[in-house]
Each structure stands twice: as C-alpha cells, then as structure tokens.
Amino acid sequence: MGSWQSPMIPSLRTSMIVDPPDGKRPAFTAEGQKRFESQARITTLESRSLFERCIIGNQGPPRIPSIRNYGESQIVQTPDHVVLLTQVNSEVRVIPLDDRPPGPDNVRPWLGTSRGYWEDETLVVETRNFHEDVWHTRNRGISPNIHVTERYTRVDDGLLLYEVTLEDPETWDVPWSYEMVWPKMDPPGLFEFACHEMNYGLINVMRGTKVRAAENAGDLAR
Fold first, then answer.
1. Is the dihedral of CA 159, 83, 87, 48 positive or negative?
2. Burial of 20 (0-12, 13-18, 19+ CB in 10 A)
3. Per the domain annotation, does 207 fall within a domain?
4. Does residue 185 lie in a domain region?
5. Alpha-carbon torsion 189, 192, 197, 199, what sign?
C-alpha cells in the first residue's frame, strides 16, 4: 500500500477531533481524572516513557501526530496480514486479517492486540488488551481496557484517510473520534532511525535526577 507521511497538508481546521462536534475531547470521568493526576505526578527514573527509551514509536494505536519528521509509515499488505512500519524507533505492528480471537485477557502487549478486517475499501483495525502501564506509551489517564477502532481509507492515489474512535468508559463518559489525512511519500521508503536505550538524552536525564534526589535527601537531613 506504499509509504505515507503524517499530516503535512495545510488546513483551516481548528481541531482533528470530529466527534464531539465542538472539536474538544470529552472531560475525564472522576476515575479518569484521578488516574491522570496520579500518573502525572510520577517522575522517577523508572517512569521514563518507552518512547523516550527508544523501545516503541508513535504508530499507535491510536496514531497521534508528533513533532519533527516522526510520522513516516510504510504499509505492507498480504492476503492475511497488514504490517505497519514506522520510521521512529523502527516500530512494527503486525495485524492479522483472519477471524482469530483477540487472545486471552491476561495477555496484554504494550501495543495491545489488534485484529483487522475489510469494510468495502476501508481497512478497519480494532485493538484491545493493552498493557496495564499503557499510559507510559500513550496519553495519561487512559485505562488498559480502552478499545481503539482505526479506519484506513484510500481517498485517491495520493491520500490516505485515517479515522480513529476511542472508547474507554473508565476514562470518558462517551466515545470520541478524530481524523487526519496522510499524503503519500515521494520518494517512498523509510530511513534508518538510530536510537537506543543508552541515548545521551536519557543518560543525562538520569544523571540529573540522581543529583536532584541527592540534593533533596540533603535538605531533608538538615
């Protein structure tokens, strides 16, 4: 299906969110707000995100636009699978297109368990069973029981419409949806993404955290 780029098309839209119609994400439930606040306060060496540790990329689900040129993706299609490759952190999603069940509830990968099927010319991908620490990889506040439905539709030879709906009653009272259009990359293909867990940025974050912890310990000892 080719190589595609995250939104680089000028638009007068004020929001990617199409439902609710006001373009705003629904408010958190009381449980979701509490979860968000507790997760936002966790800033330890162990809480550095998997993205920051160069383990996962930004392919999703759900796919969320990121800074710089992190949006390049390549889609490879076979009769029984679709493979999504993302340039950032060389992330790979393998999505079966058969009728296999989503898997047992106690098997929860970082990217959840995805199953795909076709609705006419649209590829629909449903993902469940996220890891309990899914917030390390996605937005804070969401629960591991979130249900993500993605829809990929080829608008024409050069455009791919990406639509996603998020359902998580533990986090929001109502589902919500957003969409974006990906232009086809020219020339196609992904570049090597050189990143690993010992990148200098993370090393310096850890050094600074240790220094700050030592300073705080000294203040408490006085």
1. positive
2. middle
3. no
4. yes
5. negative
The pTM is what?
0.81
Count of domains for the chain: 1
In a domain, 211, yes or no: no
> Domain of 121?
2-196
User: Could you give the 3-state DSSP secondary structure of residue 220?
Assistant: helix
Residue 210 corresponds to which amino acid?
A: K
- CATH number of the CATH domain containing 34: 2.40.128.20
pLDDT in tens, the chain (222 residues): 555 555 566 778 888 899 999 999 999 999 999 888 877 665 666 666 677 777 777 677 887 766 554 557 788 999 999 998 887 777 888 999 998 887 888 888 888 899 999 999 999 999 999 887 765 555 677 888 999 999 999 999 888 999 999 999 999 999 999 998 888 877 667 777 777 656 677 778 778 878 887 887 776 555
**CB within 8 A of 96, min separation 6: which ones?**
80, 81, 114, 115, 116
Q: Which amino acid is at 168?
A: D
Question: Rounded to whole angstroms, how far apart are CA atoms 56 and 187?
Answer: 25
Q: Kindly list the distances between the CA atom of residue 118 and the CA atoms of 60, 61, 79, 123, 126, in Å, as whole numbers in the listed order.
A: 19, 18, 12, 5, 11
- The tokens for 89 are 């952190």
Please count the other Cβ atoms lying within 10 Å of the Cβ belonging to residue 2.
17
Does the residue 118 lie in any domain?
yes
Please give the Cα distance from 54 to 175 (Å, whole number): 30
